[in-house]
Structures are given as C-alpha cells and as structure tokens.
Write a structure and sequence with these properties.
- Pfam families: Myosin_head.
- The protein is an alpha+beta fold.
- It has 2 domains: 105 residues, Myosin VI head, motor domain, U50 subdomain (Four Helix Bundle (Hemerythrin (Met), subunit A), Up-down Bundle); 40 residues.
- The chain is built from 5 helices and 4 strands; from the N terminus they run H-E-E-H-H-E-E-H-H.
- Helix 1 packs antiparallel against helix 2, helix 1 runs antiparallel to helix 4 and helix 2 packs across helix 3.
- The longest helix has 31 residues.
- It is extended.
Length: 162
C-alpha cells in the first residue's frame, strides 16, 4: 500500500489515543454536580498522542462551550455528559482514521492518475432498519440489502446444486 512511516506512526498514535481515551476517568467536584477528568497517565497520554495540552483536553472533556448571541457561555458537564463526550471523541477519532485508511487503500488501487477502477467499499448489511417513517435513502439501503441477500442465496444454492 506504500503508506509512509510517518503516516503509519500517526495511525498507531490515533489507535493508541482511542484506547487510552477509554481509560480516562472523571472525578466529581465537591457537591456541585460537575466533573473534571482525572489527571492521570490516561489523560496525559491521550493529550500527547493527539497533540494537545492535558489541561485543554480536560477542559474539552468536562465543559461545553456555547455561543448565545455575542456571548460565549461555558457549561460544566455532569458525569454522564462527560462520559458521553469522551466516548464521542473516541468514536470521532476512530471514524476519521477509518475513513482515511479506506481512502488510502482506494488510492493505492487506483489505475494510473485516474481515481476510477478498483476500489474497496464497505457495506454493512446485518439486519434491516425499519423506522416509523423511512426516507428514500433508507428505501435504497433496504433495497440494496435485499438484492445482496438474493445474490448470496442464489450463489449458495447454485453451489449446493453442483
């Protein structure tokens, strides 16, 4: 795939950051119903791996900044909100890394300078979604799932017949 060493190291750093984020814990500040991240190895390692200061990461995980009119308001988070924020950050890092990796794989499979040709796409067809109101997009997804299931069944039955 020809991913340069620096990019490989960045991939490993982001994966490590996601893993360390899962270990970040919070402590409740007195009886004020808000939290701060515990200043331990987990928080420090995540900060180093993503390239920010531990104090800034603590602030990002334990507060929410909102703009109301021309004023900025900082809201302190509860324990459940801070845990959700931590988990959302981990998911965001992982999703961005995953998209980047798929893009790099597709670039390595590209024919010449054209970006057409062979590619890898990922389709999750486990189960069908049924909402009270389905959108056209959901209809297309369900239709594609049905067609893939039909193709699989035909292929499997053909193999059984032979």
């Amino acid at each position: 795939m020809n991913i340069i060493k620096e990019d490989q190291e960045s991939v490993f750093a982001m994966l490590a950051a996601v893993l360390w984020l899962g270990n970040v814990s919070f402590t409740i500040i007195d009886n004020e119903n808000h939290v701060e991240a515990v200043q331990d190895e987990s928080l420090i390692n995540v900060a180093k791996l993503i390239g920010c200061d531990a104090a800034d990461l603590n602030l990002a995980l334990s507060t929410r900044k909102m703009r109301v009119g021309s004023d900025n308001i900082v809201q302190k988070l509860t324990l459940s909100q801070a845990v959700e924020t931590r988990d959302a950050l981990a998911k965001s890092i992982y999703a961005g890394l995953f998209e980047w990796l798929v893009e790099q794989i597709n670039k390595s499979l590209a024919v010449g300078k054209r970006l057409t040709g062979r590619s890898i796409s990922i389709l999750d067809i486990y189960g069908f979604e049924s909402f009270e109101r389905n959108s056209f997009e959901q209809f297309c997804i369900n239709y594609a799932n049905e067609r893939l299931q039909q193709h699989f069944n035909r292929h499997l039955f053909k193999l059984e017949q032979e």
